[in-house]
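[Q] Does anyone have a clean structure-token version of this?
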Amino acid sequence: MNRFCLFVFSTLLACVAHAGWDYPPTKTVDASDTYFGRSYKDPYRWLENLKDKDVEAWFKAQAKLTDDQLLTLAHRYLSQADALILPSLLDAFRASETEAAGKAMTAALLKSSVSIGEPDAKRLQEILDKYPESVRTAARPLLAHLQELQKARIGRLRKLEPLLAAGGDIGRGRRIFFGEKVACYNCHTIGNQGGHVGPDLTGVGAIRSGHDILEAIVFPSASFVPGFEIYNVETKTETFSGVRGEDTPAAVSLVTGPHAEVRIPRKQIVSIKPSNVSLMPEGLDESLSRSEFIDLLTFLQSQKSREMAQLRKP
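[A] Here you go.
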């Protein structure tokens, strides 16, 4: 997952660097604050007043630059993105509502050879809802194609079900879970090891059927464990997606990924809505060989208790 995040960042950075954009100038003001006897300059304080006409003009200038970036992103990168990179690139198009950006995104996806998964189809529908009718009309062939793909996914899940009884190796499955290839442990805990972005999988084999485990990997947005639902928090300038963290009266907290959490001041929030798109990307099973996937399924099904998880430490 670390390599995945680095690749996404590198792709976006390469997009900006290759185009050679000049960012809109940002004026500075003579302002300062004094804390504990020391004075600190605050030349950008004027940007804090979101009702100021100069601030509105500055944001519009930034938005125009963003549209130029999105067009380059669509034309050069989106159609070539794989199943793991695609969700992050699609989310970039939430920043615009212009016809040009929306149609460029749609055209790129129509050229893509990647089989867009169910969560990405839902993500795309959410994004398209903010664009003009002309963009949604242009996207109809794409959405119709995605509906056909969904039918194929149901058949694919049925074909994968025999893997649940294929007799994989628990030890190898554990190494895959805690390894870097798919890095399940970044978001999930087994025993006392792992992250807490997603549900604790200690004992998952005792409370979930093999079919449920398989579906959760192949179609991560099919259902959500209570307490780990995804929310979209929209401000005037951007949208954040993640699991609700520890909120305060002044701010909403979202866990957006491994070791990543944002705190959003409530006064900046426009809306908070539940999302039907998981943070877990679809396509993780396709990142493994058939034997590796069998081993991972076997390991997860073997997790019947916390005691077993402790005994099976490497």
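[Q] Thanks! Anything notable?
[A] The domain at 166-221+281-311 is CATH 1.10.760.10 (Cytochrome Bc1 Complex; Chain D, domain 2).
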